[in-house]
Design brief:
By secondary structure, the chain is an alpha/beta fold. The chain contains nine helices and eight strands.
C-alpha cells in the first residue's frame, strides 16, 4: 500500500490570448481552473458579486435623503408607497408593486396637481442603482429636457415600486409623459444598474410595449450623461409625435455622436 499523498489539483491559468478579453468586458471569461473547479480568487470574486446582488435587492433606498437632495435641486417632490407593504411582499407579488392605494393617489393629486411631465423614481430591484445613479442622471437630464421646452414638473419617489407604477401616477397627475427611473434586476457584474422607462399619456392597463426603455445606466455601462441624451431625445419625440413604445424608434445615436464630436473637436490653424 503506497504512502504517497494524492496530488493537489493543478492551477491552470488562462491563455494570454483569452486573458486579453478582460480588457473589453466585465463578464467572467478566461478565469483559468484549479483541477475541475475555479481558482480560489475567481470563486471568492463570484461569491462577493453574488452577495452584492442580493444586498441590492433586499436593501432599502434612503427616501428621506433622496427627497432632500431632489428638493435642493429645485424639484417639487412627493413620496408614495405601492400596495406592496414590505420588501418580502414586493419580491413575491410584482402586481402589488405596480399599484398605489386610492387615498395615496388622491393625496398625490392634491400635492402636485396636473403635471405635463413627471419623473417617477422607484427603488425597483436595486436600491444601490437608485442611490448611485438617479441624481447624476437627473442632473444631466433636467437641463436637456428644459432646453427642449419639456421641463420636469414634479418628481414622485415610490417605495416598493415596479416599472408600471408610473402608469397610475401619471394618470392621476394627468401627465402627457411619465419617465420612470428604477433600479434594475442586478446581475453578477452589475448590481447598480439603473433603468429608464418612458410612457406617453400613461394610464393603468397599458402593456409594456407602450414604453421605451433605456437600460444599464451606470458609470461602467451607459454613462448618465449619455443616457440623459437618449432619454431627452425620446421625451422630445414622444411629446412631438404623441407616441411611445414600439411605435417610437430611438434614433438618437447619430445626434449623440455628432454632439460628442462637436464638443471634442480641436480647431486648428492654417
Amino acid at each position: 500500500m503506497s504512502d504517497d499523498k494524492p496530488a493537489l489539483p493543478a492551477l491552470v491559468p488562462a491563455s494570454d490570448s483569452l486573458s486579453n478579453l478582460r480588457h473589453y468586458t466585465a463578464a467572467r471569461v478566461a478565469l483559468g481552473r484549479a483541477g475541475n473547479a475555479l481558482p480560489t480568487a475567481a470563486h471568492l470574486k463570484f461569491t462577493l458579486d453574488h452577495a452584492r446582488a442580493r444586498d441590492a435587492v433586499w436593501s432599502a433606498v434612503d427616501g428621506g435623503r433622496l427627497r432632500t437632495a431632489l428638493e435642493a435641486r429645485g424639484f417639487r417632490v412627493a413620496t408614495v408607497h405601492s400596495l406592496a407593504e414590505d420588501r418580502a411582499t414586493y419580491v413575491r407579488r410584482p402586481d402589488l408593486g405596480r399599484r398605489i392605494a386610492p387615498e395615496a393617489a388622491a393625496a398625490l393629486a392634491d400635492a402636485l396637481g396636473p403635471c405635463r411631465l413627471v419623473v417617477v423614481v422607484a427603488d425597483g430591484l436595486s436600491a444601490a442603482a437608485v442611490e448611485a445613479n438617479v441624481l447624476p442622471t437627473l442632473d444631466a437630464l433636467a437641463p436637456r429636457l428644459a432646453a427642449d421646452g419639456n421641463a420636469v414638473d414634479a418628481v414622485v419617489v415610490v417605495e416598493q415600486g415596479r416599472v408600471a407604477v408610473g402608469d397610475p401616477i401619471g394618470a392621476v397627475l394627468k401627465a402627457d409623459l411619465a419617465i420612470v427611473l428604477i433600479g434594475e434586476r442586478p446581475g453578477l457584474t452589475s448590481a447598480d444598474s439603473l433603468g429608464c422607462y418612458l410612457t406617453f399619456r400613461p394610464r393603468e392597463g397599458l402593456a409594456d410595449s407602450a414604453r421605451n426603455c433605456v437600460s444599464n445606466i451606470r458609470p461602467d455601462g451607459l454613462a448618465p450623461a449619455d443616457a440623459a441624451y437618449k432619454i431627452a431625445w425620446l421625451a422630445r419625440e414622444a411629446l412631438r409625435r404623441e407616441i411611445s413604445g414600439i411605435d417610437l424608434k430611438e434614433e438618437s445615436a447619430a445626434e449623440l455622436t455628432a454632439a460628442k464630436r462637436a464638443e471634442t473637436k480641436v480647431v486648428g490653424t492654417d
